[in-house]
Design goal:
Elements (H helix, E strand, L loop, with lengths): L10 E3 L9 E3 L13 H14 L7 E5 L5 H7 L4 E6 L2 H10 L4 E4 L12 E7 L8 H11 E12 L1 H4 L17 H10 L3 E10 L1 H9 L4 H11 L5 H9 L5 E4 L8 E7 L2
Parallel strand pairs: 3-4, 3-6, 4-5, 6-7
Antiparallel strand pairs: 1-2, 7-10, 8-9, 8-10
């Protein structure tokens, strides 16, 4: 998820050290690191990897839908092995070039290219809302997990991300979920012990919300949709966001920005 298509250069080198092997395009479908104007969305995604990475320590991990690959690489710092899968050829080439400690494969997430019971953790952050057959994907996650394995998933909360709409506001999303719908999807897919939490703005981001008409999110989206110039203060605030500016809590989940679910494969 990203602020759709911000008015910035779209081509981002795969290797920021200078050797450019592949190029990813900022389309609004996925977030990309190292862009000030995209920094809010990147940090909003990165924080979930940071907070949940310890659950991958010493384990065999699959990231289903790895996108740019920064999250798979973060997990590779603690996991025994990380396999990443993405449907997009350019993303796969980018990950292979930039993150050599991640094993990456191109595949459809509805048919994961792994044997039964072959991994301990499946990570799926900000991906399920892009999929047409969400139920089939969840069943595939259950298939590749070992007994007692974990599925860790995050997704925008439909209640706050597309309020009052029957269809997602983001053109790259097929179906968004609320907490009850996400939990039911996981149970129907064969998982138990589903725990749910939500991601929220912490105090500093709440101050930024107040400075930008009540929502720094809406301020960014308005510029992306209309192509209007970014005010200097908005650009500076977005560039300054860190993962420490987000809170994760089990309270008032229906009001959260993103949903975070952890479920157990029996």
């Amino acid at each position: 998820m990203s602020a759709f298509v911000p008015d910035v250069p779209r081509d981002v080198p795969a290797d920021t050290s200078g050797a450019v092997d592949t190029v990813l395009t900022l389309t609004g479908e996925r977030t990309i690191p190292d862009l000030d104007i995209e920094n809010y969305w990147f940090r909003r995604h990165e924080v979930v990897y940071e907070r949940l990475a310890s659950r991958c320590a010493g384990r065999d991990v699959l990231e289903a839908g790895c996108g740019e690959g920064y999250g798979a690489d973060l997990i590779a710092g603690v996991a025994r092995r990380v396999v990443a899968v993405d449907y997009d050829d350019a993303a796969v080439a980018h990950v292979r070039s930039r993150y050599p400690r991640v094993e990456v494969m191109q595949a459809n997430l509805a048919e994961l290219p792994l044997p039964d019971a072959s991994v301990d953790v499946v990570v799926n952050f900000q991906v399920i809302e892009h999929l047409w057959d969400q139920g089939q994907f969840v069943r595939e996650c259950a298939r590749v997990l070992r007994p007692a394995g974990l599925l860790m998933m995050s997704t925008p909360n439909r209640i706050t991300f597309s309020p009052g709409r029957d269809t997602p506001i983001n053109p790259f999303h097929t179906r968004e979920l609320n907490a009850r719908e996400l939990a039911q999807l996981l149970v129907d897919g064969g998982f138990t012990d589903v725990s749910m939490s939500g991601l929220f703005h912490g105090p500093r981001l709440q101050q930024m919300d107040a400075r930008h008409g009540g929502s720094i999110i809406d301020a960014q989206i308005a510029r992306a949709v209309t192509g209007a110039p970014w005010p200097r203060e908005l650009a500076a605030d977005v560039a300054a966001v860190t993962t420490a500016d987000f809170d994760i809590s089990t309270r008032a989940i229906d009001g959260s920005l993103d949903l975070i679910a952890i479920a157990v494969r029996p």
